[in-house]
Amino acid sequence: MSYPLTEEQQLIQQNAKEFALECVEPAAAEIDHTAAHPADIVKKMIEQDFLGIFMPSEFGGAEAGYLSYALIIEELSRVSGAVAAILMNHASLAAYSINRWGSAEQKTTYLSALCQGEKLGAFALNEPGAALGAGEHKVAAVKDGDTYVLKGRKCYVANGGVAGVYIVFAQTNPEAGAKGISAFIVDGQSDGLSIARIINKMGLRGCQSAELVFDNVKVPVANLLGAEGAGLAIAAEALAATSIAEGGMVVGIAQAAMEDAVKYGKQRIQFGRPIASFPAIQTMLAEMATNIHMLRLAVYDAATLLENGEPFAAEAAMIKLFAARIGQSALIDVIQIEGGYGYSQEMVASRLYRDIKGAVIKNSSIDFPEKIIAGNLLA
Amino acid sequence: MQKLLVCYKWVLDEQDIKIAGDLSLDTGRAKYKISDYDKNAIEEGALLAEKHGVSVEALTFGTASVKQSLKDALSRGLDKVYWIGDAASEQADAFVTANVLTAAIKKLGQYDLILCGEGSSDSYNQQTAPRLAALLGIPAITFVQKLTMADGQVVATRKLGDCIEEITVVGPAVISVLPEINKPRIPGLKQVMAASKKPSEEVKISDLGIAAEELSPKVRSLALKGYVMDRKKVIFKEANQADNVAKLVASLAQEGLC
User: Fold this and answer.
1) Each residue's pLDDT tens digit, B103-121
2) A121-229, CATH topology level
3) How far is A321 from chain B (nearest CA, A)?
4) Residue of B nearest to A50 (CA)
5) What would the CATH number be for the domain defined by A7-115?
6) Predicted ipTM?
7) How many CB pairs under 8 A join A and B?
8) CA gap A54, A74 in Å, rounded
9) Whole-model pTM?
10) What pairs with residue B10 in β-bridges?
11) Would you kindly state where each structural domain of chain A is located, as residue ranges?
12) What is the CATH number of domain A232-378?
């Protein structure tokens, strides 16, 4: 493809590819098998400055831009969706939120720690039975002097239990519904914060998802992120920014699967010739190559919009919608091409299938993507 | 020792080169990269510079596209890169390359050590470093797998077939390194971003006073073809596995392989 990447972006892409193949791929199957948090790989990502990739240099970030970040997510996802997911939850949810809405003190204390990899970030948004936009959140934050007291449960918190900094969404004004949700920066070592359980997931295993319990966790007023009631807006933008990275993740996983199918299709002989010579196989490959190409262009374009400070919510929603449509179907076709081998755990396709499913459902957007896209058209 | 220089080559990435049915090479979609062995030389220069607080610069000679290599090179720990982008490199053999590099080095000034990869990852002639040393009138130390600097001299460990030779040299000298000398770094994001702020300088061949015959290659490439190793596609289908093994061994023996 000829998307106009800068020399720096091309180098970052090339180096990320080398890093992924050398430092991540050898461990990818084992990470999937054990579902253990790959702390050694995170340490290597810190050495590559990945944890502060698009954040400002004054807080220890590399200031390499959001498109470079999407490129890194794509390359990591080609070998391990779990490792990409760890970085994604840290960078485009937690660090992005503090960088975007944090006070100078919050950035000095927390963003610096996240950029330099002293702490991993996580985003504690989801609750059992609560739709974000509907104001059904039950985790409450009650102001008591110079602290807020948080009480309740959060589920499906990626990086939960291994993160040192959580962005936690809680109700500060239950009567206001969705507009009463506020965001807080919560230290992972806070008294009263505990892990109820680690969720045994189908895919993206190794990116640990946990259920968190907040048992009267005291959070200083100074750790309120943005204003009271701004939680919904914060979550909406952070989720939209993350949709772009998730698009990159789907591109990376689907690309890896397609390359595996091409390799298999050339080798597998049926009826005296490679199955890749059959029109039915070629149709599937052509369809997935086209879809991956289109999604990649959309990801690069939206990442550039974000990087340039232009509106990107509608483009991010398009990525969310399109990635969900084409990601899983690509993997279904890859497994179809590879037949019984693809269905077996011995081939990489089954892991990629489970990972891509996670990539397309992982973080909900603030609303249905169709509604965001149409709303933008009709505004 | 105060000043190091690394010479590197900007080559086609062999992974991107496709071999067509007629064995011709399709380089249409091939990207360029710093030659793999030269990455070892750059890394060694950067490690020595970081350890001993000396400066390390680089020099490269290629077509106009060699300019695209600068940020990659600079992100690998170099202080500055001098580049010569000229069409003369298209047909250049080791004779021409060494002539151009020598003239440029004489213009740039004195270096205590000049590091090269043992060979380039495209043609792998292994000639540039020794030729460079001969033209500059300084020692050439080849096949180096370990390098240490102390008290103004360099201790180089050379790998020579079945034996190891350790020698000491006082610069200036040309040293060509083997891939096992180190593992080139994967530049971090901050190193990549900082590369844009580091200096680079173009050196023009026309300013080097090189005679026309020194730019005329001694070796001309007549054709470059892909090589495909044909498989014999022999399958032993005896019911008894022991018979298959016996046939395999007999077949290998017939080929002179065991």
Assistant:
1) 999 999 999 999 999 999 8
2) Butyryl-CoA Dehydrogenase, subunit A; domain 2 (2.40.110)
3) 31
4) B189
5) 1.10.540.10
6) 0.91
7) 40
8) 15
9) 0.91
10) B34
11) 7-115, 121-229, 232-378
12) 1.20.140.10
